[in-house]
Structures are given as C-alpha cells and as structure tokens.
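Homework-ish question, so no full write-ups if that breaks the rules, but can someone show me the predicted structure for this set?
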Amino acid sequence: MRLKMLSAMALMAVAGVAVAGAAPIKIGYSDWPGYTVMEVAKQKGWFKEAGLDVEMVWFEYSPSIDAFSAGKVDADMIVAGDDMVTGASGAKSKIICLVDYSEGSDMIVGGPDITSIKDLKGKKVGVELTLVEHELLLQALKVNGMSQSDVTLVGTATDKTPQALASGQVAAVGAWYPISGQALKQVAGSKKLFTSADAKGLIFDVIAVNPASYAEHKEEWTKITAIFYKCVDYLKDPKTHDDAVKIMAAKVGADPAEYEKNIPGTHFLTIAEAKTALKKSDDMLSIYGSMKLSDKFYLDNAVYKESQKPEDYLVPSVINGLK
Amino acid sequence: MAHHDWLGLKRELPRRRRLLLAAMSFIIPLAAWCAISYVPWIWHPLIRVTDPGSVDYFSTGLDIPKTTFYQEEAKARAAGEALPQGYLVNPVYLPAPHRVARAFYSAFKTPPRLQDEPWLHQSLGHSIRTIFLGFLFSSLVGVPIGILCGTYRFFAKLQEPFIEFFRYLPAPAFAALCVAILGIEDAPKIAIIFIGTFFQQILIIANSVRKVDPALVEAAQTLGASKWKLVTGVVIPASITDIYTDLRILLGWAWTYLIVAEVVGTMSGITLFINQQARYRNFDNVYAAIAMIGIIGLSCDMLLAWLGTILFPWKRKNRTARRQQPLFPLFDKPRPLVLPPRFRPNPEPGGQLDAAS
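A: Not a homework solution, just the prediction itself:
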C-alpha cells in the first residue's frame, strides 16, 4: 500500500518535471522604457502569433537579476555591465539582443551653486556606488580632465538622491529617470551637468539569455529578438507611437503625457542600428567598446576580479541573421 | 465621584467613554494631519510657483523653498522687475487628507489599464493570501515548538539559543536564497513572511507558556499525569488564551513584512501598486494604499478578538463578571486561572487527567 503511494508520488514528480520541460520561456523585465516596450508584444499577442509560449515576468530591476542568476527566468532585460557582474560570479549568459542605450535619461544633477562638472572639484557627490551612475560620473570627470580623486563620493541609494540633493549635503547627485527628473523638479536652481546623451553608448541595455536555454531554443530566441525590434518599430512609427506609449505608461502606472517626456532619453535600437553597434570597435557606440569600458570600471572598483570579455557574452549571429 | 475620574488606575471606564476615547485616538492624529495640510502657517516649507516673473530658473508648477523664493522676490523687487508669484505648499510626500480620501475611492473604481492586470481588490486579495499563508505555515510549526520550549527546559535549551541568534537576522536578506530555492512566484514571498514571524513566534509563545501557574502543573504531576497529558491536559488549556493573543499580535507583525516580501521575485499585490505610484510621485495613492493595509489589519484583529470571545467563553464570562462588580475594582484579587470544566484535572482517586470527562 505504502509502496504504491510512493511510486504514485514518484510518478507525479516525474510528470511534474516533464510539465516543467514544456514550461513557457520566461523573460524578466522591469521599469525602464527599453524593457517596458516589450509589453507591446505581450498586449498585441505577437508571441502567440509567432507560435511562441513566452511569459513576460514583471520585476523590480534588481530582483529581476536575482531571479535570472538563480535560473528562475530564462532571460532578463538588463544593463550589459550588470550582466557582466552577474556573469563574473556564475554562468556567463548569452547576449542575443541589443535593446537600447541611454541617451539622456541617466544624469548628473548639480545643486544651485554648481554650473559645471569642473565646479565639483573638492565637493561631495551622491551616487549609488558601483552602479551605472557611478560609471557615468567617472566618464563625466574624465571628459573634464578630472578623476574620482577630485571629488568625494557619498554612497546614496538612487531613489534617495533627490532628497540628498535637496538637503544640500551633496553638491551633485547621479540618477536615472524618473528619479533624476524629481531631483530637477524638487531642487530649485538644480541643473543637468552631464547626461548619458554626452556619453552615448556608455550604458547599453540588452536581453541576456541563460546559455542552456539559448542552446536548447535557438530558433525561439531568434524569433523573440525579432519581436523585440517589432516593438521598437511600433514605438518609432508615428502612426502607432501613441498607442505604444499608452501601453508602456499603463504598465508602469504613469500618465502617458508625462511618460512621453522620458522616451527621448532612451535611444531604442532598430535592427540596422543594432547591427552597427555589433561591429567591433573601442568606440563606446560599439557594444564591444562599451562593455570593455564597463569591464575596466568594475575591475578598478573591485566589483569583480577577473576581466570579462565581451566575446564570451555576445552572440552577434542572432541579430545579424535578422532582416 | 468615581464616575468623573477619567484617570482611575485599573478602573474599567464606562462603555460610552471607552468608545469616545477610541474615536479620539483616530481623530487626534487626523486633526493634526488636517492642521498641517490646511493651515498655511503650519509647516508648508515650499512655495509652488504660479508665475515665474523675472526669475530665470523658476517655472510654473515648480516647488521652491520659502527662503529661496523670498530672496528672489526681494532681488526682483530691488531691480524693479516682474515679481514671481506662488502659494504655500507642503512637499509632495505629504498629500492632504481629502486627496488621499479621493485616491482611496478612485483606486477601487479604476479598472486595470492593461488586460490580464489585476484590479486593486484583486491585488489586495493576493497580499492577504500571501500574509495568511506565511503566517499559517509559521504557526503550524512555531506554535507546537513554542509550547514544547515553554513546557520543557530540555527543548528550550536545545532550541532557544539558536532562535535568539536567528531572530536578529533580517528576513529580507534571505530574498535571493528564497528565490533560488523557491522560484519567483508566491512561494519566496511566503517564505520571507515565515522567516520574519517564525522565530519571534517560538520565543513569544514559549514565554506565554512559561507563565502557566506552576501550582497547576505540580498538581497535575501529583495526580500522576503523563508527560504528554501534562502538555495537552494542563499546559495548553491553561495558556491557550494567551497563545491566541500572541498570535493576534504576531499576525500584525507578519503584515509589516509584506512590503519587503512582495518585491521578492515578481512584483505583486499591493506593493506593486505602492512602489509604482511612489516612483511617479502619486503620493495620494501611496497613502491610500497604506491606509488600506491599516484598515485590513485592524479589522482582521477586531474579527479575531471577537472570535476569541466565541472560542474561549470562559474568558469572556470572566470579563463580564468583572464589569458587573464595579465597586471594588481597585482591590481586585489576582484573577484565578479559570479552566473550562472539561479541562479541569479529574479529582477522582487514581488521578488520571481526562480531557473527555
């Protein structure tokens, strides 16, 4: 009797595994326009149309990375640099799709008395250490012939930067949209000192795929990449632009008119632009150059110890195979 | 004149006064909130610009600190240029009560903007389920262990030092581990609530159990109760009402973990709503959602309190008995522990404790 029950349970377990094998492809995404645009595909039913069983899973950004590195989602929409940090301590994922680069949404915002990056010499700057805004600040300093030692960094959670700037305890902060917008709005006389539009390509967003899932479902992943660019086209087409913004704004709970304002800060890549970005170069507008720069940044800041090579991550054939 | 004494020690207040005080406990903070929101000279540290005048960095709708605004105004006046205009406001982080009330109402009426997204009441339902399951699992394991620890030193010494250590560990720090083991859906959220409740639960329940009148335990032992019978026949019945009260308090505790638990894995429930609205500075919606959690928590507690009077009628009888003799309340004798008849030790010779008799 007991044996029967045991074997029945074992059977159920096996069946469970079998069902799990037929589970949908799960993609993690979060509140960044480049990622949120995938909601269009979900709402329009484009995955089903292509015969795919895809589940888009909505996260906060960092839990999405946790879930991805724990293997609980098959892919994540992520900053290329963050993907290297994840890869340095575990399996190196496959970057199959270049999503966008930040073009203005990330910014260094100066307080009322600061008019340029050079004014920051000897002052305190609030940024979330080792994250993208830290990297942006270093780039800003470099362009102005300065270095990290010229300022005092104050570790500040990005969502607290508007308050930090308002308190007057720091001369400038680094934040991304919509938080950067809050800082500008909240602190009278504050202004953009340096934005990702001044460092195009520094911050690339990508779709990173679990290598096992990529190996198993190459064809599906190619279709998913194509669908991503279909979403970008839908957003860029003046005829459908408003509908795309409406869907994206609804997903993040924002007012469409307000959301519209932040769209230009993200440079969505079309297939042609993605192909250009996949050409090897040390320029930041090449994903290779951008990732190399991030790699140096992470090594310098001891985020990880072993240099990560873009070649280990990038799978250019997926995008290059698209028409 | 005792009736006019509001501050009588250990004196039960008349029902009407108790209700009045209960109402006041809500009215006072609400009144303070209203005062801060509606009386312009209380706080209001910012000025919202309606006309920037000649000040180049002012713009309509911008909130400026009062001092900066007055400085710029003085400068403009001295230079004989157009004066900026504006009115006093509080920071966006503190919306006025009527805006929160309106948000409260409209949040339930607003349909989800995308298909397959939940209504607010569905999100709340999801949150309640998460809390309930986390608390249920925690109690299923925690209550028996707590009772054992409270009854027998052996279990207390074996477990409590580790539990004392573990209860200081912040539950959210286990988020990534929970996701790695339990996936991204509800299981890791329930696990966070479990971790947040479980360890406190054991200690608190063990402590309540320890307070059982030792005379009662000794009497049962003298009457020859077995170890098992001692727990089921004496310790549990003697402490069950305290355990029930503990559980009510712990359930409130579990609620405080909700916001951190719901961002583990996929974002869900009421936290999804709160975080998104906070990001886009709709703080009226945020406070409405926070108020909803408070209302659900309080109603749940009141329901459990009422259920307690049904489950443990001897407790209620005791209370009404006290209420009916208001003449000597100050010198009330220590309350004897009243067991329901079926739990009383059997006084028959042979002394078996029989729960059925």
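Now go work out the reasoning yourself. Hint: Chain A touches chain B at residues 31, 39, 43, 57-60, 63, 66-67, 70-73, 112, 159, 178-179, 182, 185-186, 188-189, 191, 247, 250-255, 258 (CB under 8 Å).
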